[in-house]
Input
Amino acid sequence: MVTAIFPGSFDPITNGHLDLIERALKMFDKVCVAVLVNASKNPLFSIEERMEMMRTCMTSPRVEVSSFRGLLVDFARDHDAKVLVRGLRAVSDFEYELQMAMMNRELSPELETVFLMPKTVYSYLSSRLVKEVARLGGDVSKLVPEIVVRELAGKYGKIS
Ligand code: PNS
Output
C-alpha cells in the first residue's frame, strides 16, 4: 500500500492539478492532497474555501484532502506517505522544484519526490494566471473546474 502526498497552495485548484491527481492515482494506492494553510502568501481563497473546492472535485475514494501547516515532511510522516508528488510544467519550474526536493530529502531521506508532467494543454496553466484572467473578466471555464469558475465569479463580482 503506497500513499503519495500531493501538496500545494491550490489557490484555486486548476484542471492541471486535477490532471496530476489522476496520474498519481494510476501509480499509487492512495493520494493525500495537502492544502497549505499558508497565511504568508495572502491567498485569495481561505483554507476552508480551497478545501471545499478540492473536495467537490474529488471523485475517487482513494483521494483524501487535508490541510497542513508547518513542514511538509512532518505531514508526510503523519500520513505514512513515502512519496511526494509535484508537477513539472516547464523547465522554468525545475530549479525551484529541485531545491524543494533536495531540502525535503535532507529533512526526510525516506520520502521520495516524484515529478509528473500534466497534459500539454495545461503546461502554461497556473493558479496565479487563472486569478488574473478571471479578475480582468476573461473566460477561465476551460482551465478550472466549474465550482472554481463560480467561486472566482463570486470573488471578482463578474461571470467569467
Ligand atoms: O502550490 P505551491 O505554492 O507551489 O506549493 C508549495 C508547497 C506547499 C509544496 C511548499 O511551499 C511547502 O512544502 N511548504 C511547506 C513548508 C515546508 O515544508 N518547507 C520546507 C520544504 S522546501
Notes: The beta strands are 3-8, 30-36, 63-68, 83-87, 112-116. Residues 62 and 96 are 29 Å apart (CA to CA).
